[in-house]
Amino acid sequence: MAKFVTIGYGDREGYDRTDPGLRDAAHEHDARLLGQGAQMGMAGTPVQVRNHDGAGVETQTGPFMRSALPVAGFAVIEAATLAEAVEIVSRTPCAVAHGVVEVWPLDPS
Hints:
The chain has 109 residues and is α+β, with helices and mostly antiparallel strands. Helices cover 30% and strands 32% of the residues. The protein has a single domain, classed as Alpha-Beta Plaits (2-Layer Sandwich), CATH 3.30.70.1060. The chain has a four-stranded antiparallel beta sheet. It starts with a strand and ends with a strand. The model has no long low-confidence stretch (mean pLDDT 95).
C-alpha cells in the first residue's frame, strides 16, 4: 500500500454551519481510520527551520505556506491508489465541513 500525507484546512465557521449529523459521521470516519492505523493529529503552531549553507539554525514561529483557511490537522494514511486516498479523505471533517483536504503521495526514498 502506498502512503499519503493529508492536510486538512477548515475553520470554526464552516464547521458550525455543517449539519451536526454529517459532522458526527465524519468524526466516526476519522475514528475508524485511526483504528485502522492512520496517524492523525490536529495542527499546532508551526515553526519554520532554516540552516542555510550549514551556517546556523534559524527558527521563526508561524506557517511558511499561506491559505485562506487555517490548517486544522494532518494525517498519514495508506491506500492502494491516489483515487482511493481521495475517496477516503472525502468523508473527513475538513472535507465535509466547508474546508478542503490536500492529499500528497509519499514517494518511497
